[in-house]
Amino acid sequence: MVDNFKRNLLNGYKRLLNTVLCLLFCFAQVGCASLYPLQPVSIIENSPIRTYKYAVIAPTNTLTSSAAGLYGNGYNVYGSATSKSINPADVIKGSLVKSGFIVLPDVKPELLNETLIVNYGESGRRNLGLLAYSIEVSIQFISAENSSLISSCSAEGLGGTEADDIRIAIRRCLNALLVSENL
User: Which residue of 3, 17, 104, 161 is 20 to 30 Å from 65, comparing CA positions?
Assistant: First the structure.
């Protein structure tokens, strides 16, 4: 009877220990990344973009990313996966339209002096430890009339997937630029 009691008690402690270790591991995977703040948004302004009315956004490719998790207890093992897609040009287009820009499919010769060409690129990754990293994006606003740099911004993003990282970075970048422009 006492032997059976000790065995049940020991099995209970093993389950508790497994649960605590699983929770600590999950916290380390997700929580430690939040301990690292994102770098501040970097903005270069050669002239205000509010003097322009139209924007033409260079096409970008769609990125699909996924994340999966696996956890278990004394009875079963469980898992989940998520997949997300993003086209950076669509995110940029949405922010610019919301700010009052008219997005054109291509440059119109009669509107050159009022049109910006918008370029997007991933400009880096920063390792945050424990399998986490942030993605940095850069966005340029170029005059369609003389191809000079009007403004640019760079920002990092950190989310659950690479698609989230990019979406967050684009929004941080454009929010900072458009707020500084008082649009």
Answer: 104
Q: Which pair of structure tokens corresponds to residue 87?
A: 């086209």
Return the structure tokens found at 99.
Answer: 């700010």
Residue in 135, 167, 171 with CA at minimum distance from that of residue 153: 171
84-129 tens-digit pLDDT: 889 999 999 999 999 999 999 999 999 999 999 999 999 888 888 7
| Burial zone of 104 (CB within 10 Å; 0-12 exposed, 13-18 middle, 19+ buried) | middle
* Rounded Cα gap, residues 100 and 2, in angstroms: 77
Give per-residue burial for 160-170: e unless 16+ CB within 10 Å, then b: ebbbbbbbbbb
Rounded to the nearest 5 degrees, what angle is found at the Cα of 102, between the Cα atoms of 99 and 104?
Answer: 140
Tokens of 82: 């998520």
> Which of 35, 164, 182, 23 lies closest to 99, judged by CA?
182
Res 13 pLDDT > 70: no
Q: Residues with Cβ < 8 Å from 134, sequence gap 6 or more?
A: 36, 38, 39, 125, 126, 128, 156, 157, 158, 165, 169
